[in-house]
């Protein structure tokens, strides 16, 4: 295997499956199966999930809600998703821990770096909920921050598109896919991979990002094995 410790970033929308909102149990079960394949090969897996399938702070702010309040609601949405994924992973007979940046000790452990690393070393899947714990920061930024803190080898951004393209491949059939691209080229071309705060943090810490199609069976194992799946952003 090319990577030993990974940070998997999933969007909240990914959990919807074919639904308009909420959580699709089948999609969760499919993800749990793919993650189990990694654990069975002794890969250490940490996960950050967004909350967009339940609530988006920015969307709330555009509708007149206080932005800070909206962002906290979004953070709680990520914890709901974390609990759902935790349940699916345990159904697949995996050991898990949910750690949150906002303390809610009845349902999760508070995030402590050394504790998170110890859980990973023991073969537990670690789910980070609550984003960074601060308003105005996305779960992309939380994913990069946690990846740096736990010394992950790579960030795997699981999406429904199989990489980074010159434009949206779902809207433009002539869009061209990049196999590899540098951080600078992503910025110069104005490509949307992550929000700029997250992306800059990743670049400054030499943390590679791979964008790939999480919904295709077997892709997760291929990516971690070093096969050419998706788009690699580095250097």
Walk me through this protein's architecture.
This protein has 235 residues and is α/β, with parallel strands linked by helices. The protein has one domain: Acetylglutamate kinase-like (Carbamate kinase, 3-Layer(aba) Sandwich). Helices cover 38% and strands 20% of the residues. It has helices at residues 25-39, 57-62, 67-91, 113-121, 139-149, 183-189, 196-204, 219-225, and strands at residues 5-10, 44-49, 96-100, 109-110, 125-129, 154-159, 164-165, 177-178, 180-182, 209-213, 231-234. Strands 4-3-5-2-1-6-10-11-9 form a 9-stranded mixed beta sheet, sandwiched between helices. β1, α1 and β2 form a beta-alpha-beta unit. It is globular, with a radius of gyration of 17 Å. The two termini are 21 Å apart. The mean pLDDT is 94.
Oligomer status: single chain
CATH superfamily: Acetylglutamate kinase-like
**Continuous helix count:** 8
Strands, count: 11
Give the CA-CA distance, first to last residue: 21 Å
**Stretches with pLDDT under 50, minimum 5 residues:** none
Rg over CA atoms, rounded to whole Å, is 17 Å
Describe the strand arrangement of the main beta sheet, using strand numbers. Answer: 4-3-5-2-1-6-10-11-9
One letter per element, helices H and strands E, the order comes to: EHEHHEEHEHEEEEHHEHE
CATH architecture, please? 3-Layer(aba) Sandwich
Could you give a short account of the major beta sheet? 9 strands, mixed
Q: Tell the overall outline.
A: globular
Helix and strand content put the structural class at alpha/beta
CATH class: Alpha Beta
Mean pLDDT: 94
